[in-house]
Structure formats: C-alpha cells, structure tokens
Amino acid sequence: APRAGVLALQGDVREHLRVLEQLGADAVPVRTPTALASVDALVIPGGESSVIDKLSRTFGLREPVRARIAAGMPVYGTCAGLILLADRITDGAPGQQTFGGIDVTVQRNAFGAQVESFETDLSVATLGDPPVHAAFIRAPRVTEAGPGVEVLASLEDGSVVAVRQGRLVGTAFHPEMTGEHRFHALLLSMLRDR
Ligand code: GLN
C-alpha cells in the first residue's frame, strides 16, 4: 500500500488519516523529519496556518518539507494547508511564512466574519459527478494564479477555491469533513502515475 502522511503539528489530522486509511493507504502522522522521510505523499490539514508554520520550524520540518516538495512529492493541502502551499499570502500573521510550491497568492480568512463558515456544492471538472459538497471554515481564497496553475474549482462569485500545479493540490475547503474522498484519491493516484 502507498504510505501517505498527514502533517500532524496542529489541525484536523485524524479526519485525514481516516480518509487515507479508507482509501487503502498506510496512513502515518508526520511530526518528525524521520516520519516525513518514510512517506510517499503528504496531506497538510486545516487548522491555523500561522501555528503550523511556527511549529514546522520548531520541529525541524520546514526545510525537509520544502525539499520533498521540490523533489516532486505529491502534497494535498486543505484550507490552512492550501495557505502553506502558496508561494505568496496576504493577511498573514506577523512573520508568517509558507512552504510554497504553488504559484498563487492566497488571501487568508477571505470570507470575513460575516460568513465565517458555509457549505456549498461545487462542480470540479477533473472529478466529474457528483459535485463536491464543500465545507468552508474561515477559509482562504486564491486571488492570483500563475500560468502553470490549473484552477480546479471556483465559487459563483468567481473566488478560486481549488488549484493544482504538478503534484501539488490545494483546496480552500475541507472535503474530509463531508465524506468527500476524491481529492485524497487524486493524491494517491499521483503515486501510481510516477
Ligand atoms: N483561517 C485559518 C488560517 O488562516 C484556516 C482555517 C482552516 O484551516 N479551516 O490558517
């Protein structure tokens, strides 16, 4: 079975481990460089991106994660995970950094206090039918995307909320909370294609 890690510094780690297990992967929480070296693919969960950023440096994981991304490891980031995969962010916490890898600008907390959380059905061309039932929780959005970035989904107001660049996929929403497994399956399928 493919060995798929979930970056386990902060956030909804267990839900992602469960989805990966249900898809037949050997699912591993990643808190150390040794654990990172043992996985073939990585999920970066939702949570608080500034905290995950800080802890990644405390745990000595920042440079190893960046190196694996540069070496072509498939990575899927949800919500805070999308923020951490973005090359550029706006409305970051003071000093906040990202791993980068996807040539996008991501605005944190883009939907503001008036709609902190909402759910909607999104059509995602690469996934086909049925549409994705997506939960947005203090979600970011992609405000600029470079030419190498494929937009996978947008809201009706035009906000880009799912992107892919090579083996990196990011969504502003949380499929692991609504029984949606197709993004994780896409991540694992990149291992079979290598
Ligand atoms: N607002 C959070 C952040 O900036 C992301 C929220 C989430 O992951 N659900 O990191």
TrEMBL record:
For this protein, the Enzyme Commission number is 4.3.3.6, 3.5.1.2
UniProt catalytic activity: L-glutamine + H2O = L-glutamate + NH4(+); aldehydo-D-ribose 5-phosphate + D-glyceraldehyde 3-phosphate + L-glutamine = pyridoxal 5'-phosphate + L-glutamate + phosphate + 3 H2O + H(+)
| Active site residues of this protein | 79, 174, 176
The UniProt entry, under Pfam families, shows: SNO
Residues the entry annotates as binding L-glutamine: 47-49, 108, 137-138
The record's listing under NCBIfam families reads: PLP_synth_Pdx2 (TIGR03800)
Assembly and partners are described as: In the presence of PdxS, forms a dodecamer of heterodimers. Only shows activity in the heterodimer.
Its family remark reads:
Belongs to the glutaminase PdxT/SNO family.
Name of the protein in its database record: Pyridoxal 5'-phosphate synthase subunit PdxT
Q: Which organism is it from?
A: Microbacterium pullorum
